[in-house]
Amino acid sequence: xxxxxxxxxxxxxxxxxxxxxxxxxxxxxxxxxxxxxxxxxxxxxxxxxxxxxxxxxxxxxxxxxxxxxxxxxxxxxxxxxxxxxxxxxxxxxxxxxxxxxxxxxxxxxxxxxxxxxxxxxxxxxxxxxxxxxxxxxxxxxxxxxxxxxxxxxxxxxxxxxxxxxxxxxxxxxx
Length: 174
Fold this sequence. Notes:
Blueprint: E1 4-9, E2 14-23, H1 27-35, H2 37-43, E3 45-49, E4 56-61, E5 66-75, E6 79-84, E7 92-101, E8 104-115, H3 119-139, H4 155-170
Antiparallel strand pairs: 1-2, 2-8, 3-4, 4-5, 5-6, 6-7, 7-8
Helix pairs in contact: 1-2, 3-4
């Protein structure tokens, strides 16, 4: 399956991005890749903090986004819900659902509460993140060994994001 992101409005100013893909591995492997700091650092973010329901973590994404997230739901191995930037005007949510499809696993991620004008940028960004997850699962290792920081995203992530963003800027928002 080719990863694709969709965008939709939630109200006059906010929207959501939804992206999904199917991976050739079991649900436990994808769950670990999405919930353990060592595995997250291979493909999407460095995460540090209180990794339990109600806990807050600090994240530095390969995109360079840096911020706090509170764990709202963690129902292994099927459902994860985070509130990003809790208690601020930029508060949003990232929710993930995992389902078994035979020996494969479908991952659906939705980010909500984004300014509508930012949707194409987040859609292309999440698409790159899920592509990176697929590569990390295939090689069982990191896909951005060159590193990243809050000031500069991972070069490979950024190159792919810049390639995809114009397509999402032309897409209609549902």
